[in-house]
Write a structure and sequence with these properties.
By secondary structure, the protein is an all-alpha fold. Helices cover 71% and strands 0% of the residues. The longest helix has 36 residues, at 181-216.
């Protein structure tokens, strides 16, 4: 149905000539934009419902327990995966966990996973790469959070947390929860659509870049430079991603086009994870809550994890 709608808009409404570069780029842009935005609306509404009933205070108390035999890292990483992708739910919550007495390594598990995996990224991956790759991507991101948090926890870096005291980080803190079916539905829909509106520009920019690549870059253009047997391809992709800044919604459509043009999925995935999880803007923000040694350790562990995930995906896919 979406293909027929895209065909109609591209060839009938916009009167594009089939099998031209311009027509392919426009068709790709229309089809992916509609598909991604529809998935975005559905999944963000669902995750808003989950978060509404999520007992954050109880989770803090639970994660603060000392005898979970490593499961606290799993819970923190999964919690990072289901929280929103904006600053209201990563660094401020990270600070809140530390203030609640939760161990540093556990809080870092949350902080690692939070930008890598969220409902937007999951929705985009399902629409662009299918369920199999999506599940593998989610597991990989959570594993980076778990193992990275454990390693950083063992390094005893608590003294390198900055003396940083914040006021309530967002206006949503302290608000009373709405009551009644319609009150809850209205509030959740309002919050969800606010998230969607914030994300849609990134989606359209990302799909636009992907459309240009899809329509104009020759087939197998990248194969001469980035192949599975190029041992330096994954680290190079991660290093190139660091100066960039985007969230998953903006970079995933670009990754789809790069994969279609010959870049191995693992290399492309490593690039995407580095863009959303290792950017310079994030480092500048984290500098407010971490001293240099902790910041470098955090980025170093995450970098190694992303590179290993890239190699693993290239090996099995």
């Amino acid at each position: 149905m979406l293909i027929k709608l895209s065909d109609f808009l591209t060839f009938t409404v916009l009167k594009q000539i089939p099998e031209t570069h311009q027509a392919e780029a426009i068709h790709f842009f229309i089809y992916d934009s509609i598909k991604i935005i529809l998935l975005l609306i559905i999944i963000v509404h669902f995750m808003s419902l989950v978060r509404f009933y999520l007992p954050v205070n109880k989770m803090r108390a639970f994660l603060n327990a000392r005898k979970l035999y490593g499961l606290e890292y799993l819970f923190a990483s999964v919690f990072g995966a289901i929280t929103p992708f904006c600053s209201c739910s990563s660094i401020p919550l990270f600070i809140g966990f530390l203030e609640a007495g939760i161990p540093l390594g556990v809080t870092l598990s949350f902080l690692i996973t939070s930008p890598l995996i969220n409902e937007v990224a999951i929705g985009l991956f399902i629409g662009l790469f299918g369920w199999k790759v999506t599940v593998m991507y989610a597991i990989a991101g959570i594993l980076i959070g778990i193992i990275g948090g454990m390693i950083l926890g063992k390094m005893k870096l608590e003294k390198y947390v900055s003396e940083f005291v914040t006021k309530p980080p967002c206006s949503c803190k302290g608000k009373q929860k709405p009551s009644g079916f319609w009150g809850i539905s209205k509030a959740l829909s309002k919050d969800s659509m606010k998230i969607v509106r914030q994300v849609v520009p990134f989606v359209l920019i990302g799909v636009g870049v992907g459309a240009v690549i899809h329509g104009y870059v020759p087939e197998n253009f990248f194969e001469a430079y980035i192949q599975k047997d190029n041992i330096f391809a994954v680290p190079a992709a991660v290093i190139l991603a660091v100066p960039l800044y985007s969230n998953a919604s903006g970079v995933i459509p670009i990754i789809e086009s790069l994969v279609a043009k010959g870049i191995p999925l693992g290399t492309a995935l490593a690039f995407m994870m580095a863009v959303v999880g290792l950017s310079l803007p994030e480092a500048l923000i984290l500098k407010k809550v971490m001293k240099l040694r902790l910041l470098l350790s955090f980025f170093g562990v995450v970098t190694v994890g992303i590179i290993l995930i890239g190699y693993l995906f290239n090996l099995i896919i």
